[in-house]
Design a protein that fits this description.
The protein has 2 domains: 243 residues, Rossmann fold, CATH 3.40.50; 116 residues, abc- transporter (atp binding component) like domain (Coagulation Factor XIII, Chain A, domain 1, Distorted Sandwich). The chain is built from 8 helices and 17 strands. The strands form 4 sheets. The protein has a 6-stranded mixed β-sheet with strand order 5-6-7-3-8-9, sandwiched between helices. Strand 16 and strand 17 form a beta hairpin. The longest helix has 16 residues. It is globular, with a radius of gyration of 25 Å.
């Protein structure tokens, strides 16, 4: 295995024996393999890939696609039926919530126990304990049995322990999804730091937006088979499109307009916002600032986002995505991409995205709006369907946009 490769998987496959009745297991033992009283279920079929040091790879797929099985084999907690998996360095895994922890032990005792599993002495783990407790923010609860912990408290301790055993490879299987937004933000910041030091990450999730933000590459699994792999944004877009087409779900209804006729969110008061910031309203307007549900092709479009900041943070990112009414993704823009510092002080703020020349073909469109932490990995607030507008113009063509162009006859 090359020195810059952290994980090398070759032809990895896993089969389970499915017995129709409990007695079938006994019959299989008595017949000593001369007859088969089970059928095989292949959870994973001949998967091969490699991960470089410092690389973050995401795995997408519906439940039962083999994502968790793959991570368990890489972690060494599950034996493959066929194939090999070579891992360079120490592996730390956040798989099933509760895995590796004794529920009757205190948080402190479980930290020492986990260190022992990685070959780290009790004295060395005692030295790491203050840092682990500080990161997990458990305080005195670290001396309580973990069976009394909430899922959020549990994942705090599990993640803090996992990163403090100084792994070369970190495996995360949906575990951070149970944490609150502030702790997710803290985890993502630490993951970025560890990545800069050469740690590799394998990330299983259903959240394609997280894959787009944190991963370099992505793999799409279905029924144990690798459908495709490639750049994270590209694979996440393909997966989203596939799931929308498969579900056949009707288009979302636009949010209600405000009293002045603009396509905006009339009130945020009914939403339960628990993050550091929340969206107050969104509106679209023309070059004069007048509300505009109808935009002429070639005209100016402004999208104004008003938001409230509830607690101090290191910064915010405001994202605006434009979509056609059939859910076709047109463009995703955000303040970080354009090096714009969005106001992040406690209070109410407003920021406007201006598109000076709308070159979209005639049709109905809407926006998705998000407020994220400074890394873009933690979603403080998000609106799936708002600020609808219609584009009108005389240019009839196929496609989505009319690019700037000219014809020259020679």
């Amino acid at each position: 295995m090359s020195s810059d490769v952290a994980i090398d998987v070759r032809g990895l496959a896993k089969a389970y024996r499915i017995y129709p009745t409990p007695s079938s297991r006994l019959k299989q033992m008595l017949w000593r393999g001369q007859r088969r009283f089970f059928h095989e279920f292949w959870a994973l079929h001949d998967i091969s890939f490699s991960v470089k040091r410092g690389e973050c790879v995401g795995f997408l797929g519906k439940n039962g696609s083999g994502k968790s099985t793959l991570l368990q084999m890489i972690a060494g907690t599950l034996e493959p039926t066929r194939g090999t998996c070579a891992v360079a360095g120490r592996v730390s895994a956040l798989l099933e919530l509760g895995a590796g922890f004794n529920p009757d032990f205190t948080g402190r005792e479980n930290v020492i126990l986990n260190g022992a599993l990685f070959g780290i002495s009790a004295n060395e783990m005692q030295e790491k304990l203050p840092s682990i407790i500080e990161f997990s923010e458990l305080g005195d609860f670290v001396d309580q049995p973990v069976k009394t912990y909430s899922s959020g408290m549990f994942v705090r301790l599990a993640f803090a322990t996992a990163i403090h055993v100084e792994p070369q490879v970190l495996l995360v299987d949906e575990a951070l999804a149970v944490g609150d937004a502030a702790f997710q933000y803290k985890c993502m910041e630490r993951i970025q730091l560890l990545r800069s030091r050469g740690m590799s990450i394998l990330f299983v999730t259903h959240d394609t937006s997280a894959v787009r933000k944190i991963c370099d590459r992505a793999f799409w699994l279905d029924s144990g088979n690798l459908v495709t792999s490639g750049p994270a944004i590209e694979i996440a877009d393909q997966y989203d499109s596939f799931m929308r087409a498969k579900s056949g779900a009707p288009e979302s209804e636009p949010l209600p307009a405000n009293d002045n006729g603009g396509g905006s969110l009339s009130s945020i008061s009914e939403k339960q916002c628990t993050g550091a910031a929340s969206i107050r309203s969104v509106s679209v307007s023309d070059h004069n600032g007048a509300p505009a549900n109808l935009v002429c092709m070639g005209g100016e479009l402004r999208v104004t986002v008003s938001y409230d900041v509830h607690q101090e943070s290191s910064g915010l990112i405001i994202g605006v995505a434009l979509l056609r009414n059939d859910q076709l993704y047109i463009a995703g823009l955000n303040t970080k991409l354009d090096n714009i510092e969005a106001p992040a002080g406690i209070g109410c703020h407003s920021i406007t995205l201006t598109i000076p020349r709308v070159n979209l073909l005639g049709g109905d469109y809407f926006c998705k709006i998000g407020v994220f932490d400074s890394t873009g990995m933690v979603k403080w607030d998000f609106l799936e369907h708002c600020a609808p507008f219609k584009v009108h113009g005389p240019y009839l063509a196929e496609g989505v946009v009319v690019p700037e162009h000219e014809w020259r006859v020679e």
